[in-house]
Amino acid sequence: MKERQVDVMKKRTILKAVGVLGAAAAAGAIAYKSYQTDQKMKNYNLKLKFKGEVIKLDAEFESDSIAVNFTGLELDFTQATLKDNRGELKLYAEFAGIDILVPAEWHVVATGTNNKAGVNNAFVGDPTEGQPVLNVVYDLNFAGLNIRKPEAASE
User: Fold this and answer.
1) What is the pLDDT of residues 91-108, one digit of tens each?
2) What is the radius of gyration, based on Cα positions, of the chain?
3) Most CB atoms closer than 10 Å: which of 3, 68, 118, 148?
């Protein structure tokens, strides 16, 4: 009988050890993933984590880079102008949502990579001559990017 109790205690000890090791491995994997994301975000001008943000631009825009992680971001360009009718916005998003509101007379070209992410661009076709063009270059991971015109704002 004692032998059987010892076997049960050994099994419990082994299971506890496996559980502790599994939890430690999971914590290490999460920490490593967080480190990788921080490294990707390092080269961007504005970095947002766990904090929703609304940014209204009302000056001349030339270029910027923004990285977001576990947050939402709304960029409002409706009062802005583009320097020499050209602008570039670089975006990195992981587990995030980005909403960009752009004047209807502009054209937006959105290109990039996405991993299990969605992109909606209300600006289709080619720009006309002299039309302001905003180039959005994105890297999305489990994220959403919505680029829309002001009249779609009320929908």
Assistant:
1) 999 999 999 999 999 999
2) 24
3) 68
